[in-house]
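Record minuted for everyone:
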Amino acid sequence: MYSSLAQTITMDLDVLLSLAAFVVFLRPSVRKRYPWMFSYLCVRAITAVIVWFLLYGPLLASPEVYTKAYFVVHWVSYLVSAVLLFLGCLDVYRQALAPLQGLVRMCTTIFRWAAIASALVTATTFTSITAGPGMLVKIGVLLMRGVGTTELCLLSLLLLSMKAIGLSPRSRPFGIALGLGFMALLDCAESSVAVLQIVMTPTVQSIFEACTLLTLGIWVAYAVLPEPARAPVTVRADSTIYKWDQIASALGHKGTQVVLQPAPSFFLVDVEKVVERAFVRTLKGKESES
């Protein structure tokens, strides 16, 4: 009775926080800066409402139909969420590196290639996956594991470069990345449990659900609280980050064309030096004779 009551309360909180996150991200100031995160929260809110209805709503069909509907809704939204969370990392990168537009362009290009590589890697595993309901589960687990790795890399990058790019712990990109980090740890743990086919105890399941609620709470808090004014990014002209930004800004742009002469081979340089020394000795010998 207690576990059932606890599960009902957790489910209700998940629906409420999912809807709250969707509403706060609906504001134009947030939605335009984080469009993919907004799309993910929209999918999550719709899925949470449908799942709540399937579990606690009136029984309008047989339990078998509800079970199949729950399976399809859960894992289809899981696949879509994996893609949207990956693109949501791109939103955070763009906002975090906004003062360095060259690096933003390079980051976008890297994300595109990473998406293509992830799709190819996932496609190569299709030959080892048997058709059936389990195929959807395995594909979802593989995708979410790759997305979780990207989210953890994003959080690590922001933690290491916060001062250099003018972010603070109260900045919205950092808060969203922090939530993505919690979500990544949760997804990696769930994928490991699914692969190893471990039966989760009620305690472990409660911990997973608490982490999900904590993530949604972090996103709601950072979206609602006013974002502090971002400190201007000041770097030295000879700093590495400034050079990388200049290089990234120059990629793809055509300017004044300069012809670069090929460097002479080492053999020809050595021959020239030998000839030059012989010529100097010859001149000195003629001068001494005269």
About this structure: DSSP finds ten helices and no strands in the chain. The CA atoms of residues 90 and 108 lie 7 Å apart. The two ends are 118 Å apart (CA to CA). Residues 264-268 have pLDDT under 50 and may be disordered.
